[in-house]
C-alpha cells in the first residue's frame, strides 16, 4: 500500500524545492493590473448582490454607524459590517473622482489583493521563494473568480480572512509571532465579513492540526495559537458587544437566523441546496487549481514527488469547509469562493514538476492559444455587433436572448482599452516555455485575463444595461414625487432588498413595507414589485399610476397604485398577509 510522501522539516524557509520558473515582479504586476482593472469601475450596482451591498455601504458612509448594518432605513442583519465599513472608506476617499458605486467597488480590488498576498506568503512557506507569485497566477486563472472578484460582495472579505488564516497556520510552527498574528487577524476579518462560518472552520482546523499532524505538535505552534486568540478576539468582541448593547433582539436575530438558520434552513434566505451542488460546481469553478491539486497528490502517492507537511492546514481546511457547505441547507456558487484559497496552495503541488517537460504539455499550450484566438475573435465580433448592430444576425441573437432591449452604441474608450489589453497579453505569452505544467498555467491565466478583459470592456455597456436598475427607478421618480410633495406615505409589498437599496439611491425614496411596518397599512399609495403577473387582490383591475420594468424583462414589473382609502381597509380578509420580501 503506497502512502503520501510527506516532508516534516521545520526549518523556517522553503520545505521543498519547487523548481518553478522565476517570474519578474514587474511582469506579475502588469498581469495583475490587466486582470483586475477591467470591470472594477464603469458600471452601476448590479443585481442582486451589488445592489443591496451598495445600499448598506451608503448607510455607513452617510451616518458613520458601523454597528448595525442598515438598508433603506431598516436593520439588515445578514452580515457583519467590515466590508461595508471598508467600502464606505473608499466611497469617501474617491467619491469626488469616481461615481459612488465605482468608488465603493474599489474595495473589491482591495480585499482581493489582500487575498493574493496571504496566499503568496503561504505558498512561499510551503514551496519556497518565488512560489508565491505562482500562487497568485493560479488564483487569477480560476474560472469562478473573474466575475465575483470585480463585484461588491462581502465574500471577498471572507476570502481574504481565510487566506490569511491558512497562511498563519502554515507559518505558525516556525514563526509563531507572525503566524499567530496572521491567523488571529484572518479569523477576525472572516468573522466580521460573514459571521461564524469562516472563523469556525479556521478554528476547527487550528485545533485539529496538532492532533492529526505530528509536525504541529510543538511549543511554537501552541504559542502561535495563543497569540491568534489574543489578536483575533477583540475586534469581533467589540462589534458583538456594541450590537448587543444597541439592541439585544437584533443580536439574537443575527446569531440565530443569519448563522445557524442559514445552515439548517430555518432562515429561508438563500437558494436551497440541490443534491451534489458543490461537487458539480467545483470542477469548473476551481479549474485549473482543483485538477492540478489532484494530479500533485496522485504523483505523491505514486512516490514521484514529495509533499510538504506545511500543506496540512490548506488540506484540512478545505475538507472541513467543503463538508460544512455540503451539509448546509443553502447553496450558491459564491459560497465556494473561500475554497479557492486552500485549493490554490494544493494546486501548486501539480506545478512542482517544472522540469518534467513533455510534448503533451506543449500540445495543451497550443490548444490554449487556439482557444484564446477563437474566443477573442468571437468576443470582438459580438462586441462590434453590440456597438454597431453589425452583423445584424449576431446583433439580433444577442439582443433577443442575452441583452434584450439593448440599443447598439459605440464606445471608443472600450475598444482602446481592449486593444491595450490584447497587446499586454501578446507581449507576455512566450515568457514561460510551453512544454511544462507551469507553461500551461501561465497561458491559461493569460487566456482568462484576455477573455474577461474583452467582456469587461467591449461588452460592459450592454452588460450594465441588463444588470442595473437605473432605468426602472428613474422612470418611477416623477410619479413617486407626487406623494412626497403631498407629504403622504408610500407602502410597498414584495419589494426585495436590492430594489429597496436602489430606490433609495436613485429616487431618495424609502417605502413603508407591509411585511415589517405596521404603519404601512395606513398609506394610500402602494408600490408593488410584481413577479410573473403576481398582484395583491386589491390591485387587480385597478389602473396603476405608473408602471416600470427593466428593459427586456417581462417577468419583473414595478407598479405604483393610489387608492382612496388606506391599504388596511382595502386588503381582503381572505387574501394572505404578505410574507418576507424576496431579497435575492
Automatic annotation (TrEMBL):
Protein name as it appears in the record: 4-amino-4-deoxy-L-arabinose transferase-like glycosyltransferase
GO biological-process terms attached to the record: lipopolysaccharide biosynthetic process
Keyword Phosphoprotein applies: no
Stretches that traverse the bilayer: 20-41, 106-127, 156-174, 180-209, 221-245, 282-301, 308-328, 334-354, 366-389, 409-429, 441-460
Record PANTHER family: MANNOSYLTRANSFERASE YKCB-RELATED, MEMBRANE PROTEIN
GO molecular function, one term: pentosyltransferase activity
Key words, A-Z: Cell membrane, Glycosyltransferase, Membrane, Transferase, Transmembrane, Transmembrane helix
Claim: Cytoplasm is one of the keywords in the record: no
Organism: Silvimonas terrae
One term under GO cellular component: plasma membrane
Membrane topology, record value: Multi-pass membrane protein
Amino acid at each position: 500500500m503506497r502512502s503520501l510522501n510527506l516532508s516534516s522539516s521545520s526549518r523556517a524557509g522553503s520545505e521543498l524545492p519547487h523548481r518553478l520558473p522565476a517570474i519578474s515582479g514587474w511582469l506579475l504586476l502588469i498581469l495583475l493590473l490587466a486582470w483586475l482593472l477591467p470591470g472594477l469601475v464603469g458600471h452601476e450596482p448590479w443585481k442582486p448582490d451589488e445592489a443591496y451591498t451598495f445600499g448598506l455601504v451608503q448607510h455607513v458612509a452617510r451616518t458613520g454607524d458601523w454597528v448595525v448594518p442598515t438598508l433603506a432605513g431598516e436593520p439588515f442583519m445578514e452580515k457583519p459590517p467590515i466590508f461595508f465599513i471598508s467600502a464606505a472608506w473608499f466611497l469617501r476617499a474617491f467619491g469626488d473622482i469616481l461615481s459612488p458605486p465605482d468608488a465603493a467597488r474599489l474595495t473589491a480590488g482591495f480585499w482581493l489583493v489582500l487575498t493574493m498576498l496571504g496566499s503568496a506568503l503561504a505558498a512561499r512557506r510551503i514551496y519556497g521563494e518565488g512560489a508565491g507569485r505562482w500562487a497568485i497566477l493560479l488564483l487569477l486563472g480560476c474560472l469562478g473568480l473573474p466575475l465575483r472578484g470585480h463585484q461588491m460582495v462581502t465574500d471577498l472579505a471572507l476570502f481574504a480572512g481565510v487566506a490569511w488564516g491558512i497562511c498563519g497556520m502554515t507559518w505558525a510552527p516556525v514563526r509563531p509571532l507572525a503566524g499567530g498574528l496572521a491567523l488571529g487577524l484572518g479569523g477576525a476579518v472572516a468573522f466580521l465579513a460573514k459571521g461564524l462560518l469562516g472563523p469556525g472552520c479556521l478554528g476547527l482546523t487550528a485545533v485539529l492540526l496538532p492532533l492529526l499532524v505530528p509536525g504541529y505538535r510543538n511549543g511554537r505552534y501552541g504559542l502561535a495559537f495563543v497569540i491568534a486568540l489574543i489578536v483575533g478576539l477583540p475586534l469581533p468582541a467589540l462589534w458583538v458587544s456594541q450590537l448587543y448593547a444597541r439592541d439585544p433582539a437584533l443580536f439574537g436575530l443575527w446569531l440565530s437566523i443569519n448563522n445557524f438558520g442559514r445552515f439548517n434552513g430555518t432562515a429561508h434566505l438563500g437558494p436551497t441546496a440541490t443534491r451534489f451542488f458543490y461537487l458539480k460546481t467545483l470542477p469548473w469553478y476551481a479549474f485549473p487549481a482543483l485538477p492540478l491539486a489532484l494530479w500533485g497528490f496522485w504523483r505523491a502517492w505514486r512516490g514521484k514527488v514529495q509533499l510538504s507537511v506545511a500543506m496540512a492546514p490548506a488540506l484540512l481546511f478545505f475538507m472541513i469547509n467543503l463538508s460544512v457547505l455540503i451539509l448546509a441547507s443553502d447553496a450558491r456558487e459564491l459560497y465556494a469562493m473561500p475554497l479557492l484559497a486552500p485549493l490554490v496552495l494544493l494546486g501548486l503541488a501539480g506545478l512542482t514538476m517544472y522540469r518534467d517537460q513533455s510534448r503533451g504539455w506543449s500540445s495543451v499550450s497550443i490548444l490554449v492559444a487556439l482557444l484564446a484566438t477563437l474566443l477573442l475573435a468571437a468576443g470582438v465580433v459580438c462586441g462590434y455587433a453590440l456597438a454597431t448592430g453589425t452583423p445584424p444576425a449576431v446583433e439580433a441573437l444577442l439582443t433577443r436572448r442575452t441583452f434584450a432591449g439593448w440599443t447598439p452604441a459605440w464606445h471608443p474608450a472600450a475598444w482602446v482599452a481592449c486593444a491595450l489589453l490584447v497587446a499586454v497579453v501578446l507581449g507576455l505569452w512566450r515568457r514561460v516555455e510551453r512544454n511544462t505544467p507551469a507553461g500551461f498555467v501561465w497561458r491559461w491565466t493569460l487566456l482568462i485575463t484576455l477573455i474577461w478583459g474583452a467582456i469587461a470592456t467591449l461588452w460592459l455597456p450592454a452588460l450594465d444595461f441588463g444588470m442595473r436598475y437605473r432605468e426602472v427607478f428613474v422612470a418611477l421618480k416623477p410619479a413617486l414625487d407626487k406623494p412626497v410633495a403631498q407629504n403622504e406615505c408610500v407602502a410597498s409589498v414584495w419589494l426585495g432588498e436590492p430594489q429597496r437599496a436602489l430606490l433609495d439611491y436613485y429616487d431618495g425614496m424609502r417605502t413603508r413595507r407591509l411585511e415589517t411596518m405596521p404603519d404601512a397599512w395606513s398609506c394610500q399609495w402602494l408600490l408593488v414589485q410584481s413577479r410573473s403577473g403576481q398582484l395583491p387582490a386589491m390591485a387587480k383591475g385597478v389602473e396603476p399610476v405608473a408602471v416600470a420594468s427593466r428593459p427586456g424583462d417581462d417577468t419583473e414589473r414595478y407598479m405604483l397604485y393610489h387608492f382612496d382609502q388606506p391599504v388596511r381597509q382595502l386588503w381582503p380578509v381572505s387574501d394572505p398577509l404578505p410574507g418576507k420580501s424576496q431579497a435575492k
